[in-house]
Task: structure prediction
Amino acid sequence: MPVSKTFRTKAAADSWARERESEIDRDGSITESDMSLSDLLDKYEREVTVKKKGKGPESYRIKIIKDAMGASRVTSLTAGDVAKFAAERLKKNASDSVRRDLAVLSAVLETAMVLRWAPLRSNAAREAIKTMTRSRSLTSPNRRVRRISDEELDKVLSELKQPMCTLVCFALETAMRRGELSKMRWEHLNGDALLIPDDKTGKSSSIPLSLAAIGLLRGLDGKTGSVFSLKPDSITQAFDRACERAGVKNLRVHDLRHEATSRLFERGLTIEEVAAITRHSDWRSLKLYTHPSHSHILSKLG
Result:
């Protein structure tokens, strides 16, 4: 049966509500108050994470949190507990990585509050992030800037076999994501246009292909089914190993998309024209992928 009461101040109302919740907890009517963080993380993973495209990385971070703090009661979790977890992680991991850990935990706690999975009054992870950011214990996310020189590209390509060699060159012409390249099929091609049926936003889109991109595809065997026949993880592994053999440091597959976007601007394309290829919705997000080289700027300055 619902219980209610009127108070003159919010503080008095909050105090009364906490007392009623404690009484209900003692009666065993709300079992959510005994929920462990591990149980909450499992519930979130089953009902939320599984529906995401980025479920792999998120599940990985959920496991990290569970291993460190899973035994804690959700309702007893404090910002101090979360900050202690973050401090331990910072001993062996970059600040950006730890911030992503905390972002996942914050999303879990926020969901639990909104959907009433647990009787939470605050988001301990969000509070920890704010406090650690102010104290500079947790630095702001770094914007990655990594251009690929022609010499580095030649070294990496020399260590790659087909179809990876063509895939890398095609990525530099189209700015396509790893997952999109993996799912690309021959029937998606229509002359000088390529249909991307399921990109990161979940919307179908079509991008124009350069003559160079079309020429690269002509050199591949087979004209039905998957174009590259490679899974996303296989693409990353092959690229990383090629970089290691070539002696090229600090280069990732996703840097190909950054490089391709910067090259499109250096060719003289407008923001709107580049966005039609990269499929960024606004300039702020597109700007993160754009890193004009000093040599290109100097050539324009004269």
Notes: The first strand starts at residue 189 and ends at 190. The CA atoms of residues 189 and 255 lie 25 Å apart. The chain has two domains: 34-134, 150-301.
